Amino acid sequence: MKILLAIMLFVALAHAEAPPDADKAVQRNFAGSIQFDYLAVPTEQLARPTSLDAATVETSLKLAVDLTDKVSANVKMCVACHGPELGMAYLDLRAADELNVRVGRFTPAFGSFPQRHDPANHRTSDKPLPYDMGRMLNYKDWNEGVLPAPWVDNGIELDGVHFFGGSQFDYAAYAIGGPKGNADGYDFDYTLSRSGERYYVDNNSEPSVGARMALTLRLADDATLALGASGMAGHYDPQAKLAFWIAGADAVLQVDHVFLRAEYLVRRTQIALGDDPLARFKYGPVDGHFDDHILKDGFYAEAEVPVGRVDLIARWDGLRRWGNVLSTSTLRESSILLRYTAAAAIRVVSGVRIKASVEEYDFSDLPDELAVHLGVVGSF
Amino acid sequence: MTIRLALVVIACSLSACFLFARDTGRLDAPPTAPVDVRLGCALAENRCTRCHTVDRILSAHVDSPTHWQAYVHRMRLQPQSGILPDEERPILGCLVFRSFGAEGLASLGPK
Question: ipTM > 0.85?
Answer without folding.
Answer: no
